[in-house]
Structures are given as C-alpha cells and as structure tokens.
Amino acid sequence: MPEDAPPEVPEPATDTSQPAGPRPLGVERAPTGHDAVDAALARLADADDLDVGGHPEVYEDVHQGLRDALGALDQRPGPQGPPRPYDHRS
After folding, report:
1. Considering only Cβ atoms within 10 Å of each terminal Cβ, which end of the chain, N or C, has fewer?
2. Which of 45, 44, 37 shows the shortest CA–CA distance to 66?
3. How far is it, in rounded angstroms, from Cα 29 to Cα 47?
4. Angstrom distances, CA of residue 25 to CA of 13, 14, 19, 31, 42
5. What's this model's pTM, rounded to 2 decimal places?
6. How many CB atoms lie within 10 A of CB 4?
7. Which of 58, 62, 68, 52 is nearest to 19 (CA)?
8. Taking Cα atoms as reference points, which of 84, 18, 5 lies closest to residue 51?
9. Quick check: 88 and 70 in contact, CB under 8 A?
10. What is the largest CA-CA distance in the chain?
11. Which position has the higher pLDDT, 79 or 73?
12. How many angstroms separate the CA atoms of 24 and 16, rounded?
C-alpha cells in the first residue's frame, strides 16, 4: 500500500434482522387554495413518523376531512333560481 493512499475505512455493518423504522417519503404537496383541503393534506405528513400500523388512523382522518370539505360545498347558499309558476297549486 503506498504511503499517500488513505487507510481503508470499513463500511458500517447494516443490521437487517430488524425492520427499518419509519422514514418520510418526501412527497411535496402543493397548496390547493382551499384551507380545509390543505389542512387535510398536511395531515398526511403525520404518517411519515409512524409505523405502518399507525397509517390507517391518519388516512381515515384525512379521508374524513376531505369528505367534510366536499360536503361543505353543498352547504353554501347558491343563487336562487327563478320561481316556478306551477309550484303554488291550490
């Protein structure tokens, strides 16, 4: 081995007997412009720090938040249509 060469450093041992812990997926979420939808999607980041067994709770919560946001669209008062002349029968 030449004197100028750095000493070889062994690679750290990888323990494959234990499953890897939770790791963030690193998926970026772009804002939608709807506060309720953005809040629900931001909640997905909570799953990054959980084991797989904790994911369903987060996913169900996000799903419910998105359903609520969609349901709220039906609750907004919209413009009233013209009156129907035959709805007032005597």
Report:
1. C
2. 37
3. 14
4. 24, 21, 16, 18, 13
5. 0.57
6. 5
7. 52
8. 18
9. no
10. 108
11. 73
12. 19
What pLDDT is stored for residue 60 in this prediction? 96
Which among 51, 47, 44, 1 is positioned nearest to 21, based on CA atoms?
51
Q: Cβ(69)–Cβ(34) under 8 Å?
A: yes
pLDDT tens per residue, range 6-47: 777 666 666 667 667 777 777 788 899 999 999 999 998 888
Question: Which residue is associated with the tokens 């450093």?
Answer: 9
pLDDT tens-digit readout, 42-64? 998 888 888 889 999 999 999 99
CB 65 within 8 A of CB 35: no
